[in-house]
Amino acid sequence: MDSADGRASRRIASIASALICVLLILISLAACSTERATLTISVGGQPLFAYLPLTLADRLGYFRDEGLSIRIADLRGGSEAMAALLGGSADFVTGYYEHTIRAQGQGKHLRMVVLFDRLPGLVLMVGARYADRVKSIEDLVGQPVGVTAPGSSTDQMLKFLLGKHGLNPQSIPVVTAGTTTMIAALEQDQIRAGVTLDPTATKLEKDGTAFALYDTRTEQGARDVFGGTWPAGGIYTTEEMVTNNPKVVQSVVNAAIRALEYIQSHSAEEIAANMPEEFMAGGREQYIGALKANLAMFSRDGRMPEEGPANVLKTLQLVDPNLTPAGIDLAATYTNDFLNK
Amino acid sequence: MSAQERKRRERTIHFLQAAIFVVVFGLWEFGARSGAIDTFFFSQPSTFLGRAWQWLAIPGTQLGGRSIYQHLAVTLSEMLGSFVLGVAFGITLGLMLGRSDFWARVFNPYIQVLNALPRLVLAPIFVLMFGIDERSKIALGFTMVFFIVFFNAYHGVRQVDRNIINNARMLGAGERELARHVLIPSALTWILSSLHTSVGFALVGAVVGEYLAAAQGIGWVISQAQGNFDSAGVYAGMLVLCVVVIIVEMGVTWLERRLVRWTPQTDELLAG
Question: Right CATH number for A123-226 from 2.40.37.10, 3.40.190.10, 3.90.1280.10, 3.20.20.100?
Answer without folding.
Answer: 3.40.190.10
